[in-house]
Amino acid sequence: MVEVSIIGLDIAKHVFHVHGADGKGRALFSKRISRVKLLDFFAAQPICTVALEACGGAHHWARQLAQLGHNVRLIPPAYVKPFVKRQKNDAIDAEAICEAAQRPSMRFVAVKSEEQQAAGLVFRTRDLLVRQRTQLINAIRGHLTEYGWIAPKGPSHVAKLEEDAMASSLPEAARPMLRVMLDLLAELNGKIADLDQEIARRAREDEVSRRLMTIPGIGPISATAIAALAPPAETFAKGRDFAAWLGLTPLQRSTGGKQKLGATSKMGERTLRRLLIVGSSAVVQQASKRGAPKGSWLEQMLAGKPRMLVTVALANKMARIVWALLIKQENYRAPVAAKA
């Protein structure tokens, strides 16, 4: 009897679909399985490779299947799509996952442990609260604009706006609603401050985060996010590969032996890319005000390039430095300008 060599698993909330193939890629079975019976099904299967898309819940099921002894491979959904045949359903998706996993050059996603996901949850929670705070500030500013009250942009100006507006010509019926929003804003500010302290504590206690914070432009938030969300540095052959994974490299439209590069691809990890760009923009802003080190790369770039272009280029450079520090397990050392 031919044994199954690889199984493509299409996961969902309640109904799953599995597609099994032998060592030569020939289909052996394709069946639908309920959530409660999934682990029992794989426990009865011989040890094999199980492939599934890296989507919501994938890391949980990968850990569960790995405990049963299977070799679990997670594939980015974008790499599975080319193998989907006409139409789309669970059976076709499971077959496409199975076929994609058999390609020798396929790229896989590292399975995260529960501790890694928990570390990333702290940053995700803070990011959510910051977005909610921004929405609330915009709502307060928008409503007060209807009564002729305006203030400069930024959270720091909301308090002054509150004092002036509440003490003056707001209608009596509008004041309770404004007070509700202001109380929510104060509560969000308190929770964000608590999370900032927690992130700073974790960054001080983690060796990798302390090493990353030696890079100019990377603080506790960026360092803990990189340590929690980025795959192992050994996954990438060089720093450029890590920068490309973050989406900080140019788009390529090369053909006929002619190299054509476009704008930044933005095709990678958007969270870490945003943090690196925010950090690099802070470095560029300080260099614009106080001057970059004489003879440095940053000084040469600012002398002849637009500021935003320099910011993204510096973020790319920071990504490569991050990879180098993680590989070599060293602290950042500022380059010394060559003597004339």
TrEMBL record:
Coiled-coil portions: 178-205
Residue ranges of every copy of the Transposase IS116/IS110/IS902 C-terminal domain listed in the record: 210-287
Keywords associated with the record: Coiled coil
Superkingdom classification of source: Bacteria
Pfam families in the record: DEDD_Tnp_IS110, Transposase_20
Transposase IS110-like N-terminal domain segment(s): 7-147
Coiled coil as UniProt keyword: yes
NCBIfam families hit by this protein: transpos_IS110
Name this polypeptide is given: Transposase
